[in-house]
Amino acid sequence: VQLQASGGGLVQAGGSLRLSCAASGTIFSINAMRWYRQAPGKQRELVATITSADSTNYGDSVKGRFTISRDNAKNTVYLQMNSLKPEDTAVYYCNADILPLAGITLAYWGQGTQVTVSS
Asked: Which residues make Cβ contacts (< 8 Å) with residue 48, sequence separation at least 6?
């Protein structure tokens, strides 16, 4: 099982980006999916969570600006980021609780995608 994140880049303050993270492999089911971020010199921060029932939760710093969603048919989670600020600059990681066809549910991580917001 692998998670592949994409969609990062350089954007001006006030702009938008959409991150994607696709899970691949022999997957039976995916429970919660999440986005984290880590800025230089800071701890990794939970940005947003979406459950298998499409319930969502956001960190206080991104509420009203970011939207997490998922496409279960594609095993993909998205993060729509609007009104970006320089303080949103970080490496963004996806994370998902995945039950493989053979095995137990484990938390998997994507490789990270850089988001840089210029002022």
From this structure: 34, 35, 56, 57, 58, 59, 62, 66, 68, 79
